[in-house]
TrEMBL record:
This is N5-carboxyaminoimidazole ribonucleotide synthase. The lineage of its organism: Bacteria, Bacillati, Actinomycetota, Actinomycetes, Micrococcales. Catalyzes the ATP-dependent conversion of 5-aminoimidazole ribonucleotide (AIR) and HCO(3)- to N5-carboxyaminoimidazole ribonucleotide (N5-CAIR). Catalyzes the ATP-dependent conversion of 5-aminoimidazole ribonucleotide (AIR) and HCO(3)(-) to N5-carboxyaminoimidazole ribonucleotide (N5-CAIR). Residues 167-366 form the ATP-grasp domain. The keyword Nucleotide-binding applies. Its EC number is 6.3.4.18. It comes from the Bacteria. Pathway: Purine metabolism; IMP biosynthesis via de novo pathway; 5-amino-1-(5-phospho-D-ribosyl)imidazole-4-carboxylate from 5-amino-1-(5-phospho-D-ribosyl)imidazole (N5-CAIR route): step 1/2. ATP binds at K163, K209, E246, E247, K248, V249, E254, N336, E337. The gene is purK. Homodimer. PANTHER family: PHOSPHORIBOSYLAMINOIMIDAZOLE CARBOXYLASE, PURINE BIOSYNTHESIS PROTEIN 6/7, PUR6/7.
Length: 461
């Protein structure tokens, strides 16, 4: 059994999924509130005792100095909450805007201990949280044992760190997942297992993934034979992360369900979004997902809540989903993967929802009441800026601001590299086609691409 794993809560979550709502085709059967407090008794876990928000100054310590930590800063400032971020580099994205940003490695025990400790008259951190999952779990367990709340806790985080652990646990919970199998680490046995899996796969293709360390499509490969991942088998033999194989899901589109959960049990979900990937990287998010039938929206939120509760996640949890069509044309959803932190699929909430995912994450890890997740506009589209030909992204601002005055620009202060996530643009409005075009064109300007001058202010005034 995993440390902190709670069979009582896990059974509850799986009962809900398996018993109450086997498939979307059965219709909207949700008796589970998708927002608001749950009415379930929430048992204590061995590693996350129920706590009340302490009185006095609040400080959230965050491991990781990328754009996700940076985007927590405005929310922390507004709420009067101190933010202390462990950054890898003094020039990192978060260090440019957070004044309390000690430099150290996320894998370094001393750096994390120093991050939460009182020093120079500043108080100890109220809670420790993360902007990425690559953190040492044994240390986190020790910190909890010595009284520092760690949210999400290591017993939950492991399911976002390791795709094999995640698939195992989701399968136990009865959450709909693609057919999958772990591949043995012995190279001959691994190749044989992959060949067997492929033999049983339609189209003779499958998706092989590294269990740890992958992001933005790195660590995901479509294969038609073991030779397609010969280098990965070699890496496993040399002590690299184990591999798993999944059926290649014939999805009609990718969705994401975002939920926040606080230690005392309250959960809230945002509207389910469509996420559009290019070359394995999120390029656009449309909120809400167009033409999403209410039963699928409810089903996706229900899955997100069941995962958050079943895995005892605290903070924001993103559940990446595939939408497929059943034989009768009815939509079905399958879980791709989990992220236990604010996520790219939730950047639209900064401008498009009453409460952003970044503020909600702070509220959730501090065990404060969660904010309203309703959309502020019929549509919000987020377009990522992936790489740029410009010398400085700000060079695009004069033209962008003149042509798209409604666009909400968010640049991360990162060095320009091909394909790198450098920022995003949110546009909200009533007309989806127009909102999407304007978000995409504004992001294209930041990439340094030529954008036709049809979108003048006059034309859209
Ligand atoms: N089983 C699958 N079937 C079809 N496409 C997949 C499958 N798994 C992943 N993909 C595609 O690859 C992308 C990246 O995979 P994912 O597991 O989410 O890795 P990452 O950790 O890099 O985000 C997904 O968003 C999806 O487009
Ligand atoms: Mg993904």
């Amino acid at each position: 059994m995993l440390p902190g794993y709670d069979p009582v809560r896990a059974d509850t979550a799986s009962d809900r999924l398996l018993g109450a709502c086997p498939t979307v085709a059965d219709g909207p059967v949700s008796s589970i509130p998708v927002t608001g407090p749950t009415d379930l008794p929430l048992p204590e876990t061995a590693h996350a005792p129920r706590t009340v928000t302490p009185r006095g100054p609040l400080t959230v310590a965050v491991v990781g100095g990328g754009q996700l930590a940076r985007m927590m800063a405005p929310a922390a400032g507004e709420l009067g909450v101190g933010l202390r971020v462990l950054v890898e580099d003094p020039a990192s994205s978060a260090a440019q805007v957070v004044t309390d940003a000690p430099v150290g490695a996320a894998s370094g025990e001393g750096a994390i201990r120093d991050l939460i400790a009182p020093s120079d008259g500043r108080p100890a951190a109220t809670v420790l949280t993360f902007e990425h999952e690559h953190v040492p779990n044994a240390l986190l367990t020790d910190l909890i044992a010595h009284g520092t709340p760690v949210r999400p806790g290591p017993h939950a985080l492991v399911q976002a760190q390791d795709k094999i652990a995640m698939r195992r646990r989701l399968t136990e919970l009865g959450v709909p997942c693609p057919r999958w199998a772990p591949l043995p680490t012995d190279p001959a046995a691994g190749r044989a297992a992959l060949a067997d899996f492929l033999a049983a796969s339609t189209g003779g293709e499958a998706v092989v993934k590294t269990s740890r360390g992958g992001y933005d499509g790195k660590g995901v490969r479509v294969v038609s034979g073991p030779d397609d991942v010969a280098d990965w088998f070699d890496a496993v033999a040399a002590g690299g992360p184990a591999l798993l194989v999944e059926e290649k899901v014939p999805f009609t589109r990718e969705l994401a369900a975002l939920v926040a959960r606080r230690p005392s049990g309250e959960v809230r979900t945002w509207p389910v979004v469509e996420s559009i990937q290019r070359d394995g990287v999120c390029a656009e998010v449309i909120a809400p997902a167009p033409d999403l039938d209410p039963a699928t929206d409810a089903r996706a939120r229900e899955i997100a809540v069941a995962v958050a509760e079943g895995l005892d996640v605290t903070g924001v949890l993103a559940v990446e989903l595939f939408e497929t069509r059943g034989a009768d044309g009815s939509p079905q959803v399958w879980v791709n993967e989990l992220a236990m932190r604010p996520h790219n699929s939730g950047h639209w909430t900064i401008d498009g929802a009453v409460t952003s995912q970044f503020e909600q994450h702070l509220r959730a890890v501090l065990d404060l009441p969660l904010g309203d997740t309703a959309a502020r506009a019929p549509w919000t589209v987020m377009a990522n800026v992936l790489g740029s030909h410009l010398e400085a992204l700000t060079d695009a601002l004069p033209e962008l601001m003149a042509r798209f005055p409604e666009a909400r620009v968010n640049l991360y202060g990162k060095g320009i590299r091909p394909g790198r996530k450098l920022g995003h643009v949110n546009v909200s409005g009533d007309d989806l086609a127009e909102v999407r075009r304007r978000a995409v064109e504004a992001a294209a300007l930041l990439r340094g691409d030529e954008v036709s001058t049809s979108s003048t202010i006059e034309e859209h005034a």
